[in-house]
Specification:
heterodimer; A: about 170 residues; mainly alpha; B: about 280 residues; alpha+beta; Thrombin, subunit H; 3 domains; 6-stranded antiparallel β-barrel; 13 strands; elongated
Chain lengths: ~170, ~280
C-alpha cells in the first residue's frame, strides 16, 4: 500500500513537472495542446473513495491551473474526468475486495480496456477544458476541432508513457 | 431529512461532481478576467439581442426622418466639395512691349463639356462674358486649334469645335506657305484627322510636313495644327490633304481663348472694302 502511495506521489510530481515545464510549451498552432498530466488521475487506484478521488482531481487541476494562470479551468475539467472515471469503472469493472489498490494500467487491465478508458476520459477532460477556455458556444466547431486534436495528441503521449513503463511494472509485480 | 441523506449518498458521485464542478466554475468566473467579462457579456448578448430585434422594427418608423436628415447632410457636404466652388479668378496675360503692341491675349478656361462623336461637336468652357469672352474668339489648346466661340453667357461659353462641319480654319503648309482651309466632317468623321482643302495642284506636299495656322483668320500665325499623312486629288486643280491633328479632342482639359485686339478693326475694314467694291 505504501508502495502504491509512493508510486502515485512520484507519478504526480513527475507528470505535473513535465506538464508545466515541457508540455505547456508544446502545441500545434493552438489547435492541439497536450495535457498528459491526466495520466496521473487515470492511474489512481481503482477502488478509491469517491470523495477522495474528487478532492485529488480538483486540487491537481487547481495546481496545473496555477501554472497556466487559468484558475478553475483545469480543475473543472479534472472534476468532470473524475465523475466519468467513477461511472466508467463501475460500469466496466467488477471490483473484488483485494483489488481496491489495483492500478488501472495496461499491465493490469487489457490494452483494449485501457485504450477506451483513456480515450473517453481524456476526451471529456479536453472537451470541458476547451469549452471553458473559450467560454462561449459560438465558434463551436473550432472548440470541437481543438478538443479532438488535443485528445489525439494526449492519448498518444499517454500510451507512449504507459508502454515505456509497461515492462518495468510487469517485472516488479 | 433521512430520506434526503439516503438520496444524496446513493447518488453521491453525481452530487460530488456538481459540488466540485460548480466550485471550479465559480473560481473561473471570479478569477479570470476574460471569462468574467464574457460571463457578463453572454447575458448582455441575450438582452442585447432582444433590443436589437425590437430596434429593427422601430427604425422603420423613423425611416422618413432618417432619409431626410441624410439627404440634407449630403447636400451640405456636396456644397462643401471643391468641385462645386466656382473660381472667379481669371488669368489673362499680356506682355507690355514697347517695340510691338500686344495683339493677342489669352484667357485660360477649363473644358467642362465636350463631345467628339457627333456630326457637329461643341465644347463648353467655364469662362463667359464676365471674363471678357465674346462671340467669335478663337480657342486653342497647347497642342493646336480647338475651335471658335459660338455663344457666350455671363459665366460660360460654348465653342464650335474644329470637329464641326461648318468650321473652316485657314491653315498653311509650313514649308511652302501655301494656304488652304482646314475642314472636318465632309468625308471623314475621325476625331484625329482633318482635311486641308484648296491647296493648288502644283504645290509639292511631303507626308509628315507640318500644317500651321496661317494668321488670316482668328488665330495667330504659326500655331502647329498637325502633320500631313496622305495627299489625294479632289478635282482638277486642288489637292485634298489628310492631316493628323496634334490635338486629342478626347482628353481636352484646359484651353486658351484668344483675345485678338485688332480683329474688330480688321473685320470692319474687310467688310467696308467689300461694300465699297460692290
Amino acid at each position: 500500500m505504501s508502495r502504491i502511495l509512493l508510486l502515485n506521489i512520484v507519478r504526480f510530481i513527475v507528470l505535473i513537472t513535465m506538464q508545466v515545464f515541457l508540455f505547456k510549451n508544446m502545441g500545434y498552432y493552438n489547435l492541439a495542446t497536450p495535457y498528459p498530466y491526466v495520466l496521473f488521475l487515470l492511474m489512481l487506484p481503482l477502488g478509491m473513495p469517491k470523495w477522495l478521488l474528487f478532492v485529488i482531481c480538483f486540487f491537481t487541476g487547481l495546481i496545473v491551473d496555477g501554472f497556466y494562470d487559468t484558475l478553475g479551468v483545469n480543475a473543472a475539467a479534472c472534476v468532470t474526468l473524475a465523475f466519468l472515471r467513477t461511472t466508467f469503472i463501475s460500469l466496466t469493472v467488477q471490483l473484488e475486495n483485494h483489488e481496491t489498490f489495483a492500478t488501472p494500467s495496461i499491465g493490469e487491465m487489457s490494452f483494449r480496456w485501457f485504450f477506451i478508458y483513456c480515450l473517453v476520459l481524456v476526451f471529456s477532460h479536453h472537451f470541458v477544458l476547451s469549452l471553458l477556455e473559450a467560454f462561449t458556444f459560438s465558434n463551436f466547431h473550432y472548440t470541437l476541432i481543438r478538443t479532438v486534436l488535443s485528445c489525439i495528441f494526449t492519448v498518444l503521449l499517454i500510451l507512449l508513457f504507459s508502454l515505456l513503463f509497461y515492462q518495468r511494472n510487469k517485472r516488479s509485480f | 431529512m433521512r430520506n434526503l441523506w439516503i438520496f444524496i449518498s446513493k447518488y453521491n458521485n453525481f452530487f460530488l461532481f456538481i459540488l466540485f464542478f460548480s466550485t471550479s466554475v465559480a473560481l473561473i468566473v471570479k478569477n479570470n478576467s476574460f471569462q468574467r467579462a464574457s460571463a457578463l457579456n453572454s447575458s448582455n448578448t441575450f438582452i442585447g439581442g432582444i433590443y436589437q430585434k425590437i430596434d429593427n422594427f422601430t427604425q422603420y418608423l423613423n425611416l422618413k426622418q432618417t432619409n431626410k436628415s441624410l439627404s440634407e447632410e449630403n447636400a451640405y457636404l456636396r456644397s462643401r466639395l471643391k468641385s462645386s466652388l466656382y473660381s472667379k479668378l481669371v488669368e489673362q496675360d499680356s506682355v507690355l512691349d514697347s517695340l510691338g503692341e500686344t495683339q493677342y491675349t489669352y484667357i485660360v478656361a477649363r473644358v467642362i463639356n465636350n463631345s467628339i462623336h457627333q456630326k457637329n461637336n461643341y465644347l463648353t468652357i467655364n469662362r463667359g462674358s464676365e471674363e471678357g469672352i465674346t462671340k467669335g474668339m478663337g480657342v486653342i489648346s497647347s497642342h493646336g486649334i480647338v475651335g471658335i466661340v459660338l455663344n457666350v453667357s455671363p459665366h460660360f461659353a460654348t465653342v464650335q469645335s474644329l470637329l464641326h462641319t461648318d468650321t473652316k480654319v485657314s491653315a498653311s503648309l509650313a514649308n511652302s506657305n501655301a494656304f488652304g482651309s482646314l475642314v472636318w466632317g465632309t468625308e471623314n468623321f475621325d476625331s484625329r484627322k482633318a482635311i486641308l482643302k484648296d491647296i493648288p495642284n502644283h504645290v509639292k506636299v511631303q507626308p509628315g510636313e507640318e500644317v500651321v495656322t496661317s494668321g488670316y483668320s482668328l488665330f495667330p500665325s504659326g500655331i502647329s495644327i498637325g502633320r500631313v499623312i496622305a495627299v489625294g486629288k479632289s478635282g482638277d486643280s486642288f489637292l485634298d490633304i489628310e492631316v493628323k491633328l496634334n490635338n486629342d479632342f478626347n482628353t481636352l482639359q484646359y484651353v486658351y481663348v484668344i483675345n485678338d485686339r485688332l480683329s474688330h478693326e480688321k473685320q470692319q475694314l474687310e467688310r467696308d472694302t467689300i461694300i465699297s467694291n460692290e
